[in-house]
Amino acid sequence: MLYGLRSWALPRGHAENGPVGLLFGTASQAADIGFNTAVGVVLVAPAVPVVRGLAAMRAGFARAWLSNRALAPLR
């Protein structure tokens, strides 16, 4: 998502070799920054639900491993 801040440091020899140039045939730096920012937003958008789901799964495993349900019928 921060491609616009670091794109100045990348070599610009063949601008059409980037993803925008290969997909759309343009060598515009603005289009390159916009495309990379959009891809970053799309990849970051599901991060919160994925992290919450993984945390819930880990908590569920911890509860299952630490519970005493397997020994409860023996008492």
Characterise this structure.
With 75 residues, the chain is mainly alpha-helical. The protein has one domain. The chain has 4 helices and no strands. The longest helix is centred in the last third of the chain and has 20 residues, at 47-66. The N and C termini lie far apart (57 Å).
SSE topology sketch:
Blueprint: H1 3-6, H2 19-24, H3 29-44, H4 47-66
Short structural summary:
The protein is an all-alpha fold. The chain contains 4 helices and no strands.
What structural category characterises the helix and strand content? mainly alpha
Portion in beta strands:
under 5%
How would you characterize the largest beta sheet? Answer: none
**How many domains?**
1
| Average predicted confidence as pLDDT | 80
> How helix-rich are the residues, as a percent range?
55-70%
Distance between the termini: 57 Å
Please work out how many helical segments DSSP would assign.
4
Oligomer: single chain
Spatial extent as radius of gyration: 24 Å
User: What overall geometry do the principal axes of the alpha carbons give?
Assistant: rod-shaped
The counted number of beta strands is 0
Low-confidence stretches: none
Order of helices and strands: HHHH
